[in-house]
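User: I've been trying to design a sequence by hand for this structure and keep getting stuck. Would you show me what you'd pick, starting by listing the structure so we're on the same page?

Assistant: Good idea, let's start from the same input. This is the structure you sent:
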């Protein structure tokens, strides 16, 4: 079978989480969509149709993904999946049932195409973009099929589904992985280091620690929690329920119901709650966010100048890749911080990408892309990661894609 994951036009609503990575690589409840699809069948080919500025990054970071080459054909039936599908382990059974029934058709979520199944490939070998693929599906006039497949509509849905799918996804990891139970409900892979006086509570869910991770002394872990490979939980840290720690991260202070993508540092004291952090972020000491309004009411978020009710009482912040906060930065409830920004003081509004944001001190200015390229090189060197031309080009592309956020009367932002 051949699987095609595609990004549609609405993937931009997941900004800024989706700006520097394909939607299929967003982590929800310990899994990405790509992680789950690899569990379908060992013989399954997986192809990705992504936005132009991500093609080289995907080619480099996901070498296992099927590549179009002249004369190369897809094998067997074709399963087409929207990259915004929530990575819930239950999806695997839904897809297996769809394939087993052997009936061609399409599944919608409202007006959006979620999934389509073709018993044989009638698609051209080279597919340029998601809009082309959707046009091809529409031309086939497939029967509508019924299935409940949740979708990510806005960035705050990452936190909504983080808490609802976490336990079942974690159970799947425990069922299929090789872990040793080192304490009641605490499971660890090989080469895990545990400091003295660790206190754990697994009454609400398990704690899973991947290989190469370390937990400092005097830490408190309240499950369910997932701690990725080679990550480091700093001494005196408190991780409380529905926390995903990506690989090669440093985590300290108090963290609750949050997703932290790989290579991000939040190693000092301060609170992070019901939030999403992309990769290569650094939170300065004392950085805190609010995840609850003083009125205890619904949190409303703003995307592209349009306010959206979340239906959620708890929602913190969404922070894009490569952004940084200074010491004692305070982020108000439901705020969005774009990619590659430097943030200082009180964050009372959404923060555009590529800015120095010090609004409480009377200054918001554009951050030059060349400065971010130099910063990226220094960060990569610290983690022994090679800076490639595609990494640099990604920053340049994102700078152009987000230019409209920083324009005032066609001039660079300067307040």
């Amino acid at each position: 079978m051949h699987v095609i994951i595609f990004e549609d036009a609405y993937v931009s609503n997941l900004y800024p989480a989706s700006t520097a990575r394909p939607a299929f690589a967003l982590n929800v409840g310990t899994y990405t969509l790509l992680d789950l699809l690899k569990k379908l069948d060992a013989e399954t080919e997986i192809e990705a149709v992504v936005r132009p500025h991500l093609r080289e990054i995907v080619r480099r970071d996901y070498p296992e993904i099927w590549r179009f080459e002249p004369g190369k054909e897809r094998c067997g039936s074709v399963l087409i999946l929207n990259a915004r599908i929530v990575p819930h382990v239950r999806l695997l059974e839904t897809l297996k049932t769809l394939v087993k029934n052997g009936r061609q058709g399409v599944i919608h979520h409202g007006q959006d195409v979620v999934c389509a199944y073709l018993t044989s490939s009638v698609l051209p070998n080279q597919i340029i973009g998601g809009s082309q693929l959707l046009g091809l599906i529409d031309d086939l006039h497939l029967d509508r099929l019924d299935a409940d497949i949740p979708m990510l509509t806005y960035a705050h849905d990452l936190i909504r589904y983080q808490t609802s799918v976490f336990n079942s996804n974690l159970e799947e990891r425990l069922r299929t992985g090789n872990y040793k139970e080192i304490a009641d409900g605490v499971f660890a892979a090989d080469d895990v280091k545990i400091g003295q006086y660790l206190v754990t509570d697994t009454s609400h869910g398990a704690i899973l620690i991947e290989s190469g991770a370390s937990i400092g002394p005097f830490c408190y872990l309240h499950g369910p929690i997932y701690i990725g490979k080679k990550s480091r939980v700093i001494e005196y840290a408190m991780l409380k329920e529905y926390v995903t720690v990506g690989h090669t991260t440093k985590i300290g202070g108090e963290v609750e119901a949050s997703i932290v993508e790989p290579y991000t540092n939040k190693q000092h004291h301060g609170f992070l709650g019901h939030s999403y952090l992309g990769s290569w972020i650094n939170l300065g000491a004392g950085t805190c966010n609010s995840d609850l309004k003083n009125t205890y009411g619904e949190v409303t978020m703003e995307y592209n100048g349009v306010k959206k009710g979340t239906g959620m009482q708890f929602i913190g912040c969404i922070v894009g890749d490569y952004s940084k906060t200074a010491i004692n930065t305070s982020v108000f409830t439901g705020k969005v911080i774009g990619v590659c920004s430097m943030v200082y003081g009180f964050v009372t509004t959404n923060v555009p990408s590529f800015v120095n944001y010090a609004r409480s001190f009377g200054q918001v200015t554009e951050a030059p892309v060349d400065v971010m390229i130099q910063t990226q090189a220094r960060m990569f060197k610290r983690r022994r990661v090679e800076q490639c031309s595609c990494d640099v080009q990604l920053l340049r592309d994102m700078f152009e894609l987000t230019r409209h956020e920083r324009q005032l009367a066609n001039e660079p932002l300067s307040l």
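That's my pick for every position. To get oriented when you compare it with your attempt: The chain has a mean pLDDT of 94. The radius of gyration is 21 Å.
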